[in-house]
Amino acid sequence: MEEVVGRGIMVIGGELCSRHWTIRLCDRIVSDVSGGGVIGQYPVLLPGEDEFVYESCTPLPKVPGSVEGSFSFVPGKYVPII
């Protein structure tokens, strides 16, 4: 992601600021999780850099079950345009 945000300034990448998960069991919401970052981190994702990888899980005692969610990002790094 690259975007010019002002005269002579460009933003690249994005910083993960929050996440939200909805956990369902047999079509019933059993947990709704929201919070800042992931695993205590707020990674900045930049073009050409290594990806950020983490794992998260939850036990579901019955089937069918599902987890759905989203991540929110803010602009990552401000750089001067040369």
TrEMBL record:
Entries under SUPFAM superfamilies matching the protein: ApaG-like
Domain ApaG: 1-82
Domain of life: Eukaryota
InterPro entries, per database record: ApaG_domain (IPR007474), ApaG_sf (IPR036767)
Full protein name: ApaG domain-containing protein
Organism: Miscanthus lutarioriparius
